Amino acid sequence: MNAGHPIAAWGKQAATRCLLFAFGCLSISGVLRAQIQFQFPDEAFKDSSLWDRAVLLDEFRPENAPTRIALKYWDESPVVFGVKSHGIFGRFKGESMTSITVLFLDSGTHFGYVPHRNAAVTERDHRQRFRELFTKNSASIEAGLKRLSNGGEGEEITIGKTPMMEQKVRVFKTGDLYARYHKIEEQLLKVTWFRSEQAARGWADPGFSNLKPESIAAHFASKIERRGNGDVVLNDVPLLPQGDRAYCGVSALSMAMQYLGMLAETEDYAAAAGIRYGSTKGSFIREVYDAAGQESGFQMERSRQLDAKRLQESLNAGIPVVVWRRWNQQRDFLHSVFARKYRKNGEEEVLPPADVEDRANWPGEGAFNHASVITGYNEKRGEVIFTESWSEAVRNRRMRIEEMVGTTYYAFYFSL
Amino acid sequence: MRKVIIAGVASLITVLAISGTSSLQALPNSVGGLFINPAGMRFEEFGARKLTWEPNAKLLADWELWTADNARQPNVEVLKLKQKAIVFGLEASEVTVHRKDNQVLKFNVFFGPGTEVEKIEKNIGLWADGKWDQVANTINHGAVTLKLSQVKGGTHVEFLPKQS
What we know:
The complex is a heterodimer of chains A (416) and B (164). With 416 residues, chain A is of the alpha+beta class. Chain A has two domains: 6-111 and 120-202, no CATH class; 213-415, Alpha-Beta Complex (Cathepsin B, Chain A), CATH 3.90.70.10. Chain A is built from 15 helices and 18 strands. Chain A has an eight-stranded antiparallel β-sheet with strand order 1-2-5-6-10-9-8-7, with helices on both faces. In chain A, strands 11, 12, 13, 14, 15, 16, 17 and 18 form an eight-stranded antiparallel β-sheet that branches. In chain A, a hairpin with a 2-residue loop joins strand 8 and strand 9 (177-184). The two termini of chain A are 40 Å apart. Chain B has one domain. Mean pLDDT of chain B is 83; it is low at 12-24. Classes of the chains: A alpha+beta (416), B alpha+beta (164). Chains A and B meet through helix 9, helix 11, strand 14, helix 13 and strand 15 of A and helix 1, helix 2 and helix 5 of B.
């Protein structure tokens, strides 16, 4: 596994973990008692009642995510079905865990970030070995799912309505849970366990698809926080870390879409876009954005310019905007420093004016390309509030609206 | 195959529709391979936080043993950051950590001759809570004291436990 994956980022001492887990297992079952030491309990793939037990839930990090929807990661990278996974994460809605995903093999995680110039060499040198690993691991996963479902072969179904997001998957009944197995050649091996069959059979979050249209607008309007200083902020956009992968585009999309009621994960979008061997070279990220918009039931409009008025209208409806923008280290440093000083000193801190001198430092043609989610604005201060797919540490940073407009080369608006 | 054909046609239409501006076709992919990607925070934030300096604290991102320097310092483990190191908004040539008994002793950030010392000093001043001690060339921030020194071929910034 690439050690940089966010799943691997949650460090904790093994001894403490073993003690905690061993203690917890005593209260669950004899089977679990034997499964200590970084071994995810197989019972949790069959018995949804365990998903409500503190002893299991407490093992997922972070403990207190600021958003209602949050992905929480199991420590280290457990072995499941005899396969050393990239990691396990639970999707939480408030206190309740709604699904568990085991990421067995993901091209982006396996290879890490690969720049375009190295894409061909990486594929040439590693293709055969990656294929062999894919074949070996898929056989182990399929045997494991068969065992968990008492000899069942699962049911092959197609999820998704659009060609780009259409995927053939297998759904297995394991105990009182539903496991959805994704197998996409040269890209992805993943199993997600759901509590409900409805969730397993599509991309949509049943909690949203069961809402009446008039309730949906009210739902998103309720997510807006209007602060005394003029901030209008959407605090509930989940943070889905891209890790050391060329996934900023698909992670930003996943963050917005999870908020808007699509259960597809970052790795699903990466696979749909064809991000292979760690590189986005030749991939179809933009087309996947279009498809995700259609899948979600929202109208998605892609514009070559960020329009400040349109941005405010979207945020006033409780809906974030995703931007693709030019990026450089110097500006990122400035925004990082400003975010910290603003948190400390409050309103007295102001960003430099967008004058000629400041504009000369903005990233121009030839700069890095990056995706961010705009989660708020402050008209009085002339700022947009944006969140990166890196970690909670970079939630709700600030930038002058002129700079965001001046460096965005695609804006993605969603509307009901 | 069907997806590829559909996406290819869609891309071709898009290219034809908006051709003329180079960055319009650019996919958001190039912010990668940096410390912040696996670590989730900037290097200087990681280096200045108290937790990083506690015994057995985990080093974020990927580090490798740096044997050349290690040989010169018995009992001290020297590791080099594997990711590209951008520190204080500037690209460093090298970042190393010195550890003893699994505890950080110091971080060493080296900027090559292409990075002006004035720029480094200015950016550190922007970032840090403290003020420069012009005699010792040090500044405090969080759990650390930063010491800046010009050496042959570049500039060193050391992250040391805060000196009162």
